[in-house]
Design brief:
The complex is a heterodimer.
Chain A: H1 2-6, E1 20-24, E2 36-42, E3 45-52, H2 60-65, H3 73-77, H4 84-99, H5 105-133, H6 137-158, E4 167-168, E5 171-172, H7 180-202, H8 206-212, H9 220-225, H10 230-234, H11 242-245, H12 266-290, H13 308-313, H14 315-327, E6 334-341, E7 346-353, E8 361-365, H15 368-373, H16 375-379, H17 387-394, H18 398-401
Antiparallel strand pairs in A: 1-2, 2-3, 4-5, 6-7, 7-8
Chain B: H1 3-12, E1 17-23, E2 26-31, H2 36-45, E3 52-60, H3 81-86, E4 94-102, E5 107-115, E6 121-123, H4 132-143, E7 146-148, H5 203-206
Parallel strand pairs in B: 2-5, 6-7
Antiparallel strand pairs in B: 1-2, 3-4, 4-5
Chain lengths: 403, 219
């Protein structure tokens, strides 16, 4: 004590400090899967961060190379396991592009319908996780209730909540079950009500606003440079949505808007997802109104399995069935890159065929992969406590990033 | 659709463009590998306005011609080593595909670079698009393609001790990897490990339940 009194400057002197390295993850409840962040801290300020991925690598490409074209479908479920239908549709569109066929009219509507339900589930997961990890547990419960309602509908429809494997080359596997449209029309108002609850709980909440506004800012140009797509890119004000820029399936017949952010910060990425849920709900309603009756899969036995009546009743049917099962669908040789709007951005598949019953190679452009690579750029200079909201708002899904 | 982009590249780089074609609506330009950086820089800054590098993909053409047709759901697509040895390897063996997109023009373009198996080196494009950083690390990790000038060319999905390049077609699907010796980290529960090169058997080998098989053989 006496020393301090003797030297009045000692109280003002800088504390000796050194850089500290902290590991966040790979098994941390807020890391959404298994990602490790090696962070260098100066006090509480982040000086450097290195994301380390690969803990969830299952060899998607290598497994695909020894599977038939349809056997790859279950692997795509497990890329982004929150919105599997979007992955199913994205992959099967690639195979159809390679073959040069189109699915039936009704199947197109069903794909859009299933995709938009999945997109709502994915966005709900993201925004409720932001709430949860910033201490708003109620928001998480609302989000999970809404998501559960939609997953119930999906499980009635496809037979599984998240491992749907629901598309087929030339169409889809299952039609809407009886009474589905009515039940979905009952569920959707509740989902929107819960989304609205989240909106009013968080969007104008002082604590939430202060913790997300101006945190993790990126300009539009820089976001493109880092390979951002989807909500994270649109939050920076760049209007690029595959559904509008290159409409696939029946998106050209849907009336919806693409919400844009202004500042490209965590708050914009959050609020954009709420606005997108509202637009997806509009698309769902239009799908239910416009959906035409008809077959859900094409009537071409080179690519689609014949109906059981024909398999057991005609020689052509049993031959087609045998060939498809034993040899697989023969996809012409070629190389395509196909892209669709996944929940977190552009989901791309680079597919190469050498004309056999199995893919030669399939490489996936997971939307989260480039976005995660920019995480150090986003969190540098912020405090430790800002990592979690930033990391939540980019909504990295371990399954697709690490394949 | 994107023929305009192909013409732009062809006009700007007469020497560098080997060929161009279109397949299922995808425009492809095959480039000399020395020109990759210049062409990418030209496409990004010039009137093409290609701001987005979607991804970089790689195709190993080693078994492209030999693969069994069909074989059913259960058969493996793998080509046995003795079948590979019988035929001359396909050259150039590797194809790199740069999938590009211009948000302003709403047009896509794919650049392709072909690499011979004895010289798997290509200049990096990290200076043009920052997102190329991780894609190039991914290709290096999976195919062993070396990107000259990359700031941090290390494995990204696999661990540093991983041997071989898993997405090459001559890497067997079921190949086993050697166990990695335990690092010399102090362990609060078990005490310090023996460390690499230390005396005795590494703990990681004594504690695993399965037999320690020779990693070069696989079933």
């Amino acid at each position: 004590m006496t020393e301090l009194h003797d030297d009045p400057l000692a109280l003002e002197a800088d504390l000796p400090s050194s850089l500290m390295t902290v590991n966040l993850g790979p098994s941390h409840p807020a890391m959404h899967g298994t990602v490790r962040l090696v962070i260098t801290l100066d006090g509480e300020t982040i000086v450097d961060a290195v994301p380390e991925i690969g803990f969830l690598h299952r060899g998607f490409t290598k497994s695909s190379e020894s599977s038939t074209w349809h056997q790859v479908l279950p692997y795509t479920d497990r890329l982004n396991y929150v919105s599997p239908i979007l992955n199913n549709v994205g992959y099967i569109m690639g195979v159809e592009k390679l073959i040069g066929i189109e699915c039936t009219e009704r199947a197109k509507y069903l794909r859009v319908l299933g995709g938009e339900i999945s997109r709502i589930c994915d966005h709900l997961t993201c925004i409720s996780a932001i709430g949860l990890e910033l201490g708003a547990f109620t928001v998480f419960l609302y989000g999970v209730e809404a998501r559960e309602l939609l997953w119930d509908r999906i499980s009635e429809w496809t037979g599984a909540r998240v491992t749907t494997s629901w598309t087929r080359i030339g169409g889809v596997a299952t039609d809407l079950p009886p009474g589905f449209v009515e039940r979905l029309r009952e569920s959707m108002p509740r989902v929107m009500e819960l989304t609205h609850e989240i909106d009013v709980l968080l969007s104008r909440n002082r604590i939430f606003y202060d913790r997300t506004r101006g945190i993790g800012v990126l300009s539009g140009e820089e976001a493109l440079d880092w390979g951002f797509t989807g909500p994270c890119l649109r939050a920076c004000g760049v209007n690029y949505d595959v559904r509008k820029a290159h409409p696939y399936a029946v998106y050209d017949r849907m009336d919806f808007e693409v919400p844009l952010g202004e500042r490209g910060d965590t708050y914009d990425r959050y609020i954009l997802r709420i606005r997108e849920i509202e637009q997806s709900a509009r698309i769902i309603e239009q799908c239910l109104e416009q959906i035409p009756p008809g077959p859900i899969i094409i009537d071409d036995w080179r690519y689609a399995l014949p109906p059981k009546k024909d398999v057991f009743g005609s020689i052509e049917g049993v031959m087609a069935h045998f060939k498809l099962i034993m040899e697989g669908i023969q996809v012409p040789a070629g190389e395509v890159y196909v892209y669709s709007e996944g929940a977190n951005g552009e989901l791309g598949f680079h597919i190469v065929s050498n004309g056999t019953g199995k893919p030669y190679t399939i490489q996936v452009r997971a939307p989260g992969f480039p976005i995660l690579s920019a995480l150090p750029r986003l969190i540098k200079g912020h405090a430790v406590a800002d990592i979690i909201p930033i990391f939540d708002s980019i909504n990295m899904i371990g399954g697709e990033v690490e394949q | 659709m994107a023929q305009a982009l192909v013409d732009l590249v062809r006009e700007g780089f007469k020497e560098a463009v080997l060929s161009s074609h279109s397949h299922r609506g995808d425009e492809v330009v095959v480039l000399r590998r020395e020109a990759v950086q210049d062409v990418c820089r030209f496409l990004k800054d010039g009137e093409a306005r290609i701001q987005l590098l979607r991804d970089i993909a790689c195709v190993d053409l080693l078994t492209y011609d030999t693969e069994m047709t069909g074989g059913g759901a259960l058969a493996s697509n793998e080509v046995p080593a003795y079948d590979l040895a019988k035929k001359a390897p396909r050259e150039p063996r590797f194809q790199l595909a740069y999938n590009l997109y211009s948000v302003v023009r709403k047009q896509s373009l794919r650049l392709r670079v072909e690499l011979r198996s004895d010289d798997v080196k290509v200049p990096t494009v990290t200076g043009v698009w920052r997102t190329a950083d991780w894609w190039e690390r991914y290709i290096f990790d999976m195919f062993g393609i070396e990107f000259i000038g990359h700031p941090n060319l290390t494995r990204i999905l696999m661990y540093p001790e991983f041997q071989g390049y898993p997405l090459r077609k001559d890497y067997p699907t079921r190949k086993r990897q050697p166990l990695v010796a335990e690092l010399d980290f102090p362990d609060l529960v078990r005490g310090p490990g023996p460390g690499p090169g230390g005396a005795g058997v590494p703990m990681s080998q004594t504690h695993v339940g399965r037999k320690n098989v020779d990693p070069t053989t696989y079933d």
